[in-house]
Amino acid sequence: MTQPTIIRRVPGPRPRLPEPLQTALSLAASGVPVLPLRRGKVPFGNCRSCAGNACGGRPNMKHAGPCRCPGVCHAWAAATTAPAVIASPPWAAAWRQAVCVGYHPGGAGLTVVDLDNADAIAWAHGALPATRTVPTTRGEHWIYRGTMRSVNAVRPGVDIKSTMAYARWLGPGTGSMTALPDAVRALAVKEPSAVRPAPQAVTVPAPAGDGECPHRTPTYLDRGIAMAEQRITNARDAVHATVYRTFLAVLSTHGRCGCLTDAHVTRLFTAAQTKGESLRHCTDAWTNARTRLGL
């Protein structure tokens, strides 16, 4: 009687991840928020639920509040450092179609000066301090350590990409990265004599409140506001969603007793605007948080 043939599976090489996904996971591990870019080097469109900014969620320029959509939505606002999100099934199809990796410079604490042609590069060599440079298709990216608001066409062939923007990952570049200089910040100012705009005044009053005050001393409230400011300041990605959740947490704890003053609200709004949020976004986030809590 013949012995049965025993078939042993020989371990083979693990299937390779799509190259953009490998790059994205590596960047995320180093603290750089990433997102996939499709043909045309642009972000994927919003899902059906979020089309037309109808979700009222994540940083979509018009609405406030965290979006529950698991897809690759809202352009730069989708950028994340979470491996579980980057490699999740909702993102997998996007990575299979992606042509390259995008990242949120502001979320990584960086500013990219995008020089689009040879004339722009020549100008930068004479006007800006040297820093890390990355070759692009037509020009160079000059990368500085520090963040500022993003502005396109600050001069011919020059864009600034930092907060609320994305840039294409083209490699680590060469040279030492230097701190963001005033010469770059000045490019975002329309008038040469103008100074960098300060956060605008808050027009949203604190809730009056009519509940019983649970706070034994003012120190409790001050500590809570300080922690909220720090949470916003430390946000590396999803800044808009972080601002909304922080406002929601503050209001849920301090919004019903009347201890929260306009000065406290101003501190929160100032922290958010320093991270690149507009006054409108802050106001919408505050209003939406109050509405959700029934204040």
Summarize, please.
This protein has 295 residues and is an alpha+beta fold. Helices cover 33% and strands 13% of the residues.
List keywords for this structure.
295 residues; alpha+beta; 9 strands; globular
How would you portray this structure in words?
With 295 residues, this protein is an alpha+beta fold. The chain is built from nine helices and nine strands. The protein has helices at 19-29, 83-86, 89-97, 118-127, 182-185, 218-233, 239-254, 262-274, 279-293, and strands spanning 34-38, 42-43, 100-103, 110-115, 132-135, 140-145, 151-155, 158-161, 167-168. The strands form two sheets. The chain has a five-stranded antiparallel β-sheet. A four-stranded antiparallel β-sheet has the order 2-1-3-9. It is globular, with a radius of gyration of 23 Å. 37% of the residues are buried.
Helices and strands in order:
Layout: H1 19-29, E1 34-38, E2 42-43, H2 83-86, H3 89-97, E3 100-103, E4 110-115, H4 118-127, E5 132-135, E6 140-145, E7 151-155, E8 158-161, E9 167-168, H5 182-185, H6 218-233, H7 239-254, H8 262-274, H9 279-293
Proportion of beta-strand residues: 5-15%
Sketch the major β-sheet. 5 strands, antiparallel
- Count the helices. How many? 9
Give the strand line-up of the largest sheet. Answer: 5-6-4-8-7
Count of distinct strands = 9
Rounded to the nearest angstrom, the radius of gyration is: 23 Å
Q: Spans with pLDDT under 50 lasting ≥5 residues?
A: 4-10, 58-65, 191-197
